[in-house]
Amino acid sequence: MYYLKTEVGFDAAHFLKNYNGKCHNLHGHRWRVIATAKSKELLCDKQKEGMVMDFSDLKKALKEVTDRFDHSLIYEKDSLKNETVKALLSEDFKLVEVDFRTTAENFSKYFFDELKKYGFDMHQIEVYETPNNCAMYSE
């Protein structure tokens, strides 16, 4: 099996509603996302001969998927009061609502599934909230 790995980063804030600890409070991270695609065989066409794929194709897709979250407040649906969302939007803040709790574990599965939609045969996604804390998803 051949593997190809690329990484991107983005800055965003989040919080964990109903969490008993510091992460209950709004806080930010320099999120680091590492995507690993796989292939049993290398390509044979002239341009990409000997490659799993062009690195730039995987990196471009990963950047598109993560750019949605860059410099935003990511929040789980129904975790903020409607008045709070309206107030933040009236201040022109970038908000991104998701259907899952905003943990690194859930983000790893989300990014994995999003990259599969691009047609990549994904092996694993790693999501770092901090330089030392990482969650991974693979099938």
From TrEMBL:
Signal peptide: none annotated. It catalyses: 7,8-dihydroneopterin 3'-triphosphate + H2O = 6-carboxy-5,6,7,8-tetrahydropterin + triphosphate + acetaldehyde + 2 H(+). SUPFAM superfamilies: Tetrahydrobiopterin biosynthesis enzymes-like. Keywords: Lyase, Metal-binding, Queuosine biosynthesis, Zinc. GO terms for molecular function: 6-carboxytetrahydropterin synthase activity; metal ion binding. Zn(2+) binds at H14, H27, H29. The active site is at C23 (proton acceptor), H71 (charge relay system), E129 (charge relay system). Binds 1 zinc ion per subunit. Belongs to the PTPS family. QueD subfamily. Pfam families: PTPS. InterPro entries: 6-PTP_synth/QueD, 6-PTP_synth/QueD_sf. Its EC number is 4.-.-.-. Its cofactor is Zn(2+). It comes from Acetitomaculum ruminis DSM 5522. This is 6-carboxy-5,6,7,8-tetrahydropterin synthase. Pathway: Purine metabolism; 7-cyano-7-deazaguanine biosynthesis.
